[in-house]
Chaperone protein HtpG
Amino acid sequence: MRKFKTESKKLLDLMINSIYTNREIFLRELISNASDAVDKLYFKSLTDTSVQLTKDQLGIDVSFDKDARTITVSDNGIGMTQEDLDRNLGTIAHSDSMAFKQENAEQQGDDVDIIGQFGVGFYSAFMVAKSVRVVSKAYGEEQAWAWESDGVEGYTIEAAERETNGTDVILTLKDNTEEENYDQFLSEYGLKDLIKRYSNYVRYPVRMEVEKSRQKPKPEDAGDDYKPEYEQYTEVETINSMVPIWKRGKSDVKQEEYNEFYKQTFHDFTDPAATFGIHAEGALSYDALLFIPGRAPYDLYSKDYKKGLELYGSNVLIMEKCEDLLPDHYNFVRGVVDSQDLTLNISRETLQQNNQLRAIARKVEKKITSELKKMLKNDRAGYEKFFENFGRGLEYGIYTSYGMLKDELAELLLFYSAKEQKLVTLDEYLEAMPANQKSIYYAAGDSIDRLAKLPIVNTVLGRGYDVLLCTKDVDEFCFQSMMNYGPEPEKDAEGKDIEGTGPKDLKNVASGVLDFATEDEKKEAEAAEKDNEALLKAMKEHLGDVITKVAVSTRLTDAPSAVTTEGPVSLEMERLMSQMPE
Ligand code: ADP
Ligand code: MG
């Protein structure tokens, strides 16, 4: 028996027990190796005319034997010689695939896509297997060899039989323990699920023999009471879909296909509201396919909700929810990012370098913003639905960034216009403003109906100014953090701001800071206040500490009196804040 070197032994133990957080990735690793082996042979056929081979002959087969407790992953790739087995599987952290990738970096182009790089993936098999046997015949060799190990002491290599070039990796699964049920992997369903989940876009077919059922042909002499009979049969089926939908040109994918992909991948039953992609080339090449869901997931506003995009590296799933790819205010977006250029860490569960992710995330964010703007412009009804589902998150984004995200998000917001009696954007509000209007007015409360009846709202409307009626809890906080909205001021010849241009303040009509009374009206009010001094004083005395003062107002039209607050915090906001947890 050949011994693992001591370091190797320690490393192996480390590998098996602590690098991976998830046992089930063993199949992803073995299929990735098989795909690499097939890719290498294919590459050889491109560069060596003596290799007669076409791409459709190449593939990977997965099978299992419930009684023997084995899972076999076979490929008809490049195979391994006796020395290869010794070097590649006897030395932990030795990756021939990485060397291959580096040596052939220039020639391989898009046609070959090697996944391996760390020389540890193979050993993940020992997370689920008590022993592993690898039978391999290198392309062009006569003799096959078998490598075998229990993953503890060492391994053996001996001559073996295999008809054609390629490799079989045969795992004998561990016995079930109280914590772990290894039998879950010994089923058609279990294996299919893993292949679909992790290796769906491996570029060679991953096949499995699957059980099917069909109706037997009706016998000629069947009587009237004939009942159809069924029989079981098996068929070899390709489980993975190989070409990722995001790698196909937008023009040859139908929207229904995108919808199907979306619903299957993200477990939604409604079609997405919007589908769009990014194709980036250069130092960091990647593809992204993004969706805006047609409805809000039930847990979107709960703390259990996890944002993130699926992340693929070289066609293999790395992370199901990569949070860093999405900003919080777009946490509802679903999708996939795929790149060959990511520097993954050793478990291939995370990335080594965050600036790659940051660069992608920035582009993703920009793309989402521009798509939403497009939707707002071209599909108003669709956009209003979107905003009903996810608008709160956008406003929350402005609020929690202390207004920093205003430039990006404010033009995407919709509010109910008291004048137009429909949803308007802030730009539409500005557009419709009479020349003498100085601010954007809003009122906050819990229903449109009630807000529309407020005396102060009607006063403002009476002046010809529109009022935005805000019913979401976050509206007022969002406006407070924005402070104002509108294009930068125009400059005169001397470079000074032209009066009346520039952003308009956002003013809560209930906050008592409104001032659009004319000089005459103010004088009139002052006079009235003087004339009625005794009355006002008596009212204040009667109401006591419940109020701070009684005054004559220029802000009412029909209503005789109104209760208001002073300062920027409205009654509505006070109510909300008093409900917030400490
Ligand atoms: P990596 O894939 O990162 O190189 P692995 O531990 O998964 O590391 O595999 C180690 C090496 O073993 C590979 O680089 C490859 O040379 C060899 N190998 C593994 N599986 C196969 C296979 N099915 N066919 C041919 N070579 C293989
Ligand atoms: Mg590997």
User: Anything to note?
Assistant: Residues 29, 32-33, 116, 121-122 surround magnesium ion (ligand 2) (CB under 6 Å). Residues 26 and 125 are 5 Å apart (CA to CA). Residues 354-378 form the longest helix (25 residues). The first strand starts at residue 2 and ends at 3.
